[in-house]
Amino acid sequence: MNKYFYLRLSVLTVMFAYLSGCTKTETITETVTETITETVTDTIIETTIDTLRLDPVLVAEGKEVFRHDTFGDEAFWSGVLHLDKAILGADNGGYGGGVSPATALAVGLKVDAEALPDEVVSLIQSGDVDLNDPATTVELLRLNSVVGIKGNFDGAGDLSSIGITCALCHSTVDDSFSAGIGKRLDGHPNRDLNVGVIVSLTDNAQFLADLLHVDVPTVNAVLNGWGPGKFNAGLMVDGIATRPDGSIAANLLPAAYGLQGVNLATYTGWGDMVYWNAFVANLEMHGQGNFTDARLNDAGMFPIAVENNFANVVNSPDLITGKLPALQAYQLSLDAPTPPEGSYDVAAAERGKVLFDGPAQCATCHIAPIFTDAGFNLHTAEEIGIDDFEASRSPTGMYRTTPLRGLFARMKGGFYHDGRFATLAEVIDHYDGHFDLQLSQGDKDDLQEYLKSI
Ligand code: HEC
Ligand code: HEC
């Protein structure tokens, strides 16, 4: 990056040297201005994104936390929901049919190929590993290779509990070994992961039914209704499982990359990234930490939180708070991925950028290089032309302008918080109608190519 910038600078210097010997003043001014503008734009993008000089030691610690730390949430996932026993299956001391690797991959769980020793890789390649046997899943857990699920083993070598980590929802793999098995891609949302179906494997859905004041069939209908790549983070505090039209409410797992310079986090701007990390680790993963947010002490809006004192969670020891700085550093280090060459039409994207920055009004909210508002990044539902159901579940009552970098890496599952627009073309059509932009089909195509390029 920097090398490129210096290269540009030296090109500029050479140009100045060349131009000083030139006589056509008009052309000189034009060329120089153009080159300077271009160089300055590059510089702004690069320095803004690289501004934070993150401590590599802290980043490395945060990576470990993000990938492998459960914050003691085994107490919930095994202690309450018994999901370790669901994985084992009745044949191995648990209950039910067990979770084979084939089943695990089918519900979107991913395997970190780099955690597999060579001999295991050869065995899988030669077909000598039974991917339909839950015991194989236990071995994959022993190798710490199931992304976002940590298995703990007792002295006898038996699986004693499991916990979940941030990577479960916010990492995927590059499929370089086979579908669902490859190198980790941290920060990329796992849009294959069916969180609801995984939770529904519990033999203690009664716990969730009691918590939410519904019956077990309702719990199961809701969990099975989220679908792949989605989760209802608000459910644990407001108990709202359905949208006003009766359909099941759930939001897309978002990207956790490209967040440098972004003010409020989450689709509805609950707080900044550090706030939300603490919220998730305590209230969603059910880790053992401390968490306070007096806004949750609102029985009308957050009845479940009030009943369970989620506004003031106290645990000793606190396994979360001390890790928040490292976690933040790691997340900030996750830059948005660069679109592969050839994945968009360069000339069309350049035309699309002109529209984005100008007549299509996109850059009034999605401001480069962060592609969300520079400053307070929330807008009302009316401003963006959608219903306020999800916004009204948040203390802010508003929607956060989504940072758009790395859009190409999260094309699965649709766009906007709940995936209501299946394609970028639909998103653009929505804005075209809402802002009465009167874009031609060609303009829309160009805008789409630009979105694929950022
Ligand atoms: C069960 C899946 C799941 C797990 C596990 C999970 N998250 Fe999330 N995360 C979500 C969902 C869903 C959202 C979107 C919430 C919303 O806005 O409604 C989200 C939002 C976020 C955001 C906001 C992104 C943005 O664009 O502003 C950050 C940051 C984040 N999570 C970090 C974490 C960290 C750190 C952990 C571990 C401590 C974690 N998450 C664990 C599902 C998960
Ligand atoms: C008034 C501010 C505003 C303007 C103007 C605006 N957006 Fe957005 N944009 C938002 C907000 C807020 C969201 C989040 C909506 C949600 O999640 O429900 C969003 C979401 C998106 C998304 C979905 C991202 C994802 O990952 O789900 C895309 C794509 C997008 N905008 C592109 C555009 C384009 C293209 C334009 C110009 C035609 C534009 N936006 C104009 C505020 C704006």
TrEMBL record:
Residues 1-19 form the signal peptide. Residues 347-454 form the Cytochrome c domain. The keyword Zinc-finger does not apply. Gene3D superfamilies: Cytochrome c-like domain. InterPro entries: Cyt_c-like_dom, Cyt_c-like_dom_sf, Cytochrome_c_Peroxidase/MauG. Keywords: Heme, Iron, Metal-binding, Signal. SUPFAM superfamilies: Cytochrome c (SSF46626). GO terms for molecular function: cytochrome-c peroxidase activity; electron transfer activity; heme binding; metal ion binding. It comes from the Bacteria. This is Cytochrome c domain-containing protein.
